[in-house]
Design brief:
It is elongated, with a radius of gyration of 23 Å. It is built from 16 helices and 17 strands. The protein has helices spanning 35-39, 41-49, 77-84, 95-103, 120-123, 127-134, 153-157, 168-182, 201-210, 218-227, 242-254, 296-308, 328-342, 355-361, 376-382, 388-394, and strands at 15-19, 26-27, 30-31, 53-57, 89-90, 111-112, 139-142, 164-166, 188-192, 213-216, 258-260, 264-268, 277-281, 290-294, 311-315, 347-351, 370-372. Helices cover 37% and strands 16% of the residues. Helix 9 (201-210) packs parallel to helix 11, helix 10 (218-227) crosses helix 11 and helix 12 packs parallel to helix 13 (328-342). The protein is of the alpha/beta class. It has a six-stranded parallel β-sheet with strand order 5-6-4-1-7-8. It folds into two domains: 6-171, 3-Layer(aba) Sandwich (Rossmann fold); 184-382, Phosphoglycerate kinase, N-terminal domain (Rossmann fold, 3-Layer(aba) Sandwich), CATH 3.40.50. Strand 2 and strand 3 (30-31) form a beta hairpin.
Length: 395
């Protein structure tokens, strides 16, 4: 990895501007899920242990470049203090006040700045606003991989004004992605599910050039089946994307990547929990039914494929996992991948979209090698795109 980490920096006595993602869900003035706050703790503690003074900069919601009391980061302070086990000073917005608070910091202090998106210069990646941020610190540390696909002042421009490095969470994300797609152990299997081919064109086009096997599930699989002349009844499918699906199949063949589609299906006449369902061969979908999950033969083939692989990339469910019994294939495949990973036989990296929810529902997320919560940034990396926030650290 060409990006510097906290291990490469002398932090003793230095003020460190730390870009974090603590954009957490809030109801009635209280944080309802502190996962993102908990995940920045190793970075902040490491900076403190190395004698640095962390100044946290983050966004919250979409205030559109102007102050909005409903989107003040003050709401996260209690949870941040709980996670870090120490007092966190919350800074007001004026740059002059921030400078005074930073100058007054003592070893062991943590300062949180107000929502960076209150400034129009943030999302504009304005160099003057970036310079204001840079003036607060000696070193810049980006620990917000989930915001790295955005070229904003606090993720891109400021990194070019200070000695810069990746935080522990950013480092873990980059190492996991490198292990999965940059220089993976082969064979590599990618599982891509979800509703629409149109939302994952770039992902599929990139993966067929990078992996040995590509498993396609969910509504996307219906589109590929229909493109091959298979009747999918009333299933969710993008029939207008049939030429594109055939083009992806052709590219995969050229790249020696084998695409795997369902061989049997679970169908129902209505989409509700406990709906009466049938398991049928893939070519036998009734015209008045919907394909809502992959069948047991498909799951058997997918899990056998996992068993022969060295690396797995997982993005999206195999069926309508939110509603039983149409979560069966996703749950079974996820648990098989988790078992292989726990046994040391598979490197498994997952992320994006509904993936985290699906793996958590299956009780499998904890055993995967790495589960990214980065969403859009994870997908853009998998699509082969340059992430501005990462590129700035490499520069």
């Amino acid at each position: 990895m060409t990006v510097k980490t906290l291990d490469d920096m002398d932090l003793n006595g230095k003020t460190v501007l730390v870009r974090v993602d603590i954009n957490v869900p809030v109801e009635d003035g209280r944080v309802t899920d502190a996962t993102r706050i908990d995940r920045i703790v190793p970075t902040v503690r490491d900076i403190l242990d190395k004698g640095g003074k962390p100044v946290l900069v983050a966004h919250f919601g979409r205030p559109k470049g102007k102050p909005d009391p409903a989107m003040s980061l003050s709401v996260v302070v209690p949870e941040l203090e709980r996670a870090l086990g120490r007092k966190v000073t919350f800074a007001g917005d004026p740059a002059v006040a921030n400078k005074k608070l930073v100058a007054a910091m003592q070893p062991g202090d943590v300062l949180l700045l107000e929502n960076v998106r209150f400034h129009p210069g943030e999302e504009a990646n304005d160099s003057r606003f970036a310079a204001e941020l840079a003036a607060l610190a000696d070193i810049y540390c980006n620990d917000a991989f989930s915001a790295a696909h955005r070229a904003h002042a606090s993720t891109e421009a400021v990194a070019r004004l200070l000695p810069s490095c990746a935080g522990r969470l950013m480092q873990a994300e980059l190492e996991a992605l490198e292990q999965a797609l940059g220089a993976p152990e082969r064979p590599v299997v990618a599982l891509v599910g979800g509703a629409k081919v149109s939302t994952k064109l770039d992902l599929l086009s990139n993966l067929v050039r990078k992996v040995d096997h590509l498993v396609i599930g969910g509504g996307m699989a219906n589109t590929f089946l229909a493109a091959q002349g298979i009747d999918v009844g009333k299933s969710l499918a993008e029939h207008d994307m049939a030429p594109t699906a055939r083009e992806i199949l052709h590219r995969a063949e050229e790249a020696a990547c084998r695409i795997h589609l369902p061989v049997d299906i679970v169908v129902a006449r209505e989409f509700r929990a406990g709906a009466e369902a049938q398991t049928l061969p893939v070519a036998d979908c009734p015209p008045d039914a919907m394909i809502l999950d992959a069948g047991p033969q498909t799951v058997e083939r997918v899990t056998a494929l996992f068993g022969s692989a060295a690396t797995l990339i997982w993005n999206g469910p195999l069926g309508a996992f939110e509603i039983p019994p149409f979560d069966t294939a996703t749950n079974a495949a996820a648990r098989a991948a988790a078992d292989l990973t726990r046994e040391g036989r598979l490197v498994s990296v997952a992320g994006g979209g509904d993936t985290v929810a699906a793996l958590n529902k299956a009780g499998a997320a904890g055993d995967f090698t790495y589960v990214s919560t980065a969403g859009g940034a994870f997908l853009e990396w998998m699509e082969g795109k340059t992430l501005p926030g990462v590129a700035a650290l490499e520069g």
